[in-house]
Amino acid sequence: MKLSYNWLKKFVDFSLSPQELSKVLTSIGIETSVVSHGANWTSVITAKVLSKEKHPNADKLSLCLLTDGKNNYSVVCGAKNVDAGQIVPLAKIGAVLPGDFEIKKSKIRGVESEGMICSEKELGLKDSSEGILVLDEKTETGVPLENVLGDIDSVLEIEITTNRGDCLSHLGVAREIGAKLKKQVVLPVIKTPNSAQANNVTVESPLCSRYIGCLIKGVKAAPSPKWLADSLEKCGIRPINNIVDITNYVMLETGQPLHAFDITKLSSEKVIVRAAAKDEKITALDGKEYKLDADMLVIADEQKPVAIAGVMGGEYSGIDDKTETVFLESAIFAPSSIRKTSKKLNLSSDSSYRYERGVSWDISQYASWRAVNLILELAGGRLESRGDVRKVEYEKTNIILRIDRVSKLLGYNVDEKEITEILRYLGIDLEPKGEVILCTVPSWRNDIKEEVDLIEEVARIHGYENIPAVKEQDDAVFVKNNSFFPEIVAAFRSKLSGLGFSEALNYSFSEIKELELFDLKYSYKIANPISKENEVLRPSLLPSLYKNLSFNAGQGASRVALFEYGKIFTAKGERKTFGAVMYGSVWQEWWKWSENKINPSFDFYFGGGIVKNILPSEDFIISENLNPEGYYHPGKTAAVIYRGKPVAQFGILKPSVSADLKGEVFYFEFDIESVAGVYESSASLYKHFTKFPSVKRDISVTADKSLQFAKIEKTIKSIMKAGNILKDYSLFSVYEDAAKLGEGKISYSFRLSYKNDEKTLTDKEVNDDMNKLLEKLDGELSVKLRQ
């Protein structure tokens, strides 16, 4: 989207240059570039055309004589609108125009030219222009062009993420600038004239939550004033007439799409917001006819649709130079509905682009009044009626923000005053409540839904560049990391790859019809799926893996062995799972197998052997499958049991599932999360050395021989896990002597290591902690200090 630098300055007072502003916006997440640099030229002056003659060697060129009041210049010009007596911009020899285009003395069709008479496009003032720029006849000659044109604008271009639809306007970006620079945003003052009555608007569909309609009579459609036309052209929109241009201007200003109808072209003054009828047709403003369906929303009169809601108006109800009565629309449509309609019709517009990202409840009303004000000012007329139909009432988003949570999540301290200041400049209402703040999010920020979103806003505006760098430490030691997933995933991948499997990557979505083939039930349905193939979250890896297998087999593959590691979604929640399918020949055609050249096919027993090969340990037992999934052949399935619980199933798919294939299909699915505890990761983390010394103590205890040593160790470790100063222990002696210890007794000697990372321990602190350990051993296990 293109933005006018000067237009932004109308909302917020700042002194940054366009280049500096571009850097500031980019730093807060709005990627910005300067595409037009204002007076981006040198040595362009005003000059008067003294005479115009036909070029002696070219029919379409003219030979013009110009003066700057002191010197005369002979210039060859190809513009049709150049004429004697005009004041025009003259780029003299040596002038540099946008694009580093330098004007040089040259011969054009045999005639020497001492410069160039410029158009607005050549000066970088507009993207396109017809003919040269003709200045006011009272303009002084011989002065720099920038002195005549005044405050020449720069144009910036921004790219936003899909969740920041509020930045698709000058007002939205001005709010961001104000928040970063701590400046207040000032809106244009609007009047809200009273109308005699409410107009006749009916909203039949819940996909339109609010519809504001204003009927204005006695208007005069005409070309827009220069300031309005220029504002649109800078932002890449072609001016049409004052009424249409005002709707586009307000959209660029506030982000709210508007549409104006010529109400006299409708069957009556009744406006209806409804679902389209199946195969209903409309010719849009682009001159093309579109066939609609019942999922689409239209604006209609009592006979036919007059606009595709949120996307484009109809051709026959458009504003023209005879229009005297205007119906002005400002509405809020469901983003998913507009996105779906735009995609189905392959039709997009500036309006649909904004509606798809969501528009503001509050701004929809402000924008309506702003447009009414401008129409009454520039096109005349009177406000005849106004209606505001609401299918729902807007519910404000309230979020509790914990002040201490901000610093904890960001990893550095942010002053409470800075936090509240940033949020207030972003338009968020704050109500302090002790250690927390009740934050009311403005309607235009539909991307802020949780506490973490508020914290992200604080970090963004405070500046990622202000996050303090963490000093690199070199006094570190390796300690074990209890994270198991990297290890178990790597182990499964390695074993399956080594057995000739290829890894598949699929979306986490499925089609309901596809699940029915495998007798699978879904638990989570997508509210607004991209397509029918992605309407539910998959409850198993099988449907997508089977689709991969079927596709490869259909391409002539004689052997297919695939596995996938991904998430499945069942009634019990989200789980990480490994799945694999096998079909066809065990060996590839070019592999060398037994001498008799027999190439077996994957079957239940071969598949079972692979499952046994990849099991993590002997604790996993292959057993009868007492509760098989519905897609398995009842006589060719088994389960994997771990610690008494089933963690995997495998077997041959029943013939009705794999009917499209010639042979059997083997499948297994392994619940990784239920077995991950058997792995101990070798991954490492860093822990810094303490500068304080450790203290060693040796103790000997006596216990019954019948007591498992593991229970003594468990008690010692429970003390260590409590976070106290006991950091390590080691067993260095085991002693048995019935005469000295007593019958059935045994002695264990331990070396205990105590340490505090923040200070040097005293003897009293160590002795007290050691006594707690001895008391726990005696109280729980009757293990006593040896005397």
Describe this structure in words.
It holds the Pfam family tRNA_bind. The chain has 787 residues and is an alpha+beta fold. The chain is 26% helix and 30% strand. It has 20 helices and 40 strands.
What does this entry show, briefly?
With about 775 residues, the protein is α+β, with helices and mostly antiparallel strands. About 25% of the residues lie in helices and about 30% in strands.
Throw out a few tags for this protein:
seven-stranded mixed sheet; elongated; Phenylalanyl-tRNA Synthetase, Chain B, domain 3; six-stranded antiparallel sheet; OB fold (Dihydrolipoamide Acetyltransferase, E2P); Phenylalanyl-tRNA Synthetase, Chain B, domain 1; 787 residues; 6 domains
- Domains counted in the coordinates: how many? 6
The largest sheet has its strands arranged as 27-30-31-35-34-33-32
Pick out the low-confidence regions: 476-483, 680-686
CATH architecture of the largest domain: 2-Layer Sandwich
CATH superfamily of the largest domain: Bira Bifunctional Protein, Domain 2
Q: Class of the largest domain in CATH?
A: Alpha Beta
- Main beta-sheet strand count, sense and barrel state: 7 strands, mixed
Structural class: alpha+beta
Q: Number of helical segments?
A: 20
Average pLDDT over all residues: 88
Principal-axis shape: elongated
> Residue share in helices?
25-40%
Calculate Rg over CA atoms.
Answer: 39 Å
Pfam family, one: tRNA_synthFbeta
GO cellular component, one term: phenylalanine-tRNA ligase complex
Keywords: Aminoacyl-tRNA synthetase, ATP-binding, Cytoplasm, Ligase, Magnesium, Metal-binding, Nucleotide-binding, Protein biosynthesis, RNA-binding, tRNA-binding
Binding site for Mg(2+): 447, 453, 456-457
